[in-house]
Amino acid sequence: KPGDLTLDGPTIAKIYMGEIKSWDDPAIAKLNPNAKLPKQAIVPVRRSDGSGTTYNFAYYLAEISPEWKAKVGVNTALQWPVGIGAKGNEGVANNVGQTKGSIGYVEYAYAKQNKLTTTNMLNKAGKTVSPTSASFQAAAANADWNSQPGYGVILANQPGDQSWPMTAATWILLYKKPQDAATTAEALKFFAWSYAKGDKMAEELDYVPMPEKVVNDVQKMWSSEIKDAGGKPLFSPTN
Questions:
Q1: Which of 65, 203, 210, 218 has the fewest CB atoms nearer than 10 Å to its CB?
Q2: Distance between CA atoms of 169 and 98, rounded to whole angstroms?
Q3: Entry pTM
Q4: Do residues 96 and 104 make contact, with C-beta atoms less than 8 angstroms apart?
């Protein structure tokens, strides 16, 4: 059942490098002392196409496994040591659902909608966490968003007892000095509306609303950095 099994980053890295081959491996048994683990081959399923999902998965594994970082690395498409390739989150979800002993990584919505069995994970704080909206939001809330230009923070391995370690954000890219200032101003109004009114819609799609503090910081950045040719800000929190 979901949450019956707990894994950590180093163990997942070894599974996807082909070093852990069976579900009754001592590394998995150590994390799950009360589970009856079968002597069954592990079938890793991964993306065959380039994807942000793969990038975020690999980024996390590189954060916690120097061996992964050196041998496999981080990219949207990888030279995988082992596993079955499938196209898209949907392809991975379908393969995992149909293949005994398999493990895969997908965007949360695909795991939930396909009723896949999810594992718990050990996070950076050493706590066991489940994949939930609350644990994704905790990762976003605990991140140092100002540590990267344009808030380009990968939410892997964030601090905090409640943080899910493989959380990811989606970005919108805008020019700081756009050629079409009016269109950019309208876009910012739309995203401000999304932040103000879109939380319920996000949750219905199995996405996570951004924490209020992060929203406030982002909108301050819009006000101070996105300007027309004359240097006038294209957004103010009141519009």
A1: 203
A2: 29
A3: 0.90
A4: yes
pLDDT band at 176 (very low <50, low <70, confident <90, very high): very high
| Residue position matching structure tokens 């050990």 | 122
CA proximity to 120, closest of 5, 23, 1: 5
**pLDDT surpassing 90 at residue 214:** no
Angle between helices 181-197 and 212-225 (to 10 degrees): 170
pLDDT digits (tens, 9 = 90+) for 137-175: 999 999 998 888 888 899 999 999 999 999 998 888 999
Which residue matches tokens 């392809």? 91
Sheet arrangement for strand 102-103: 84-86, 43-47, 102-103
Assess contact for 164 and 123: CB atoms under 8 A: yes
12 token code pair: 């997942």
Give me 117's structure tokens.
Answer: 């069995």
Contacts with 128 (C-beta within 8 Å, 6 or more apart), sequence order: 6, 120, 121, 122
Please check whether residue 208 is in contact with residue 140, taking contact to mean a CB–CB distance below 8 angstroms: yes
DSSP sequence for 85-139: EESHHHHHHHHHHHSTTEE----HHHHHHTTPPPPEEE-TTS-EE---HHHHHHH
Tokens of 141: 């809330």
Structure tokens at 169: 């954000």
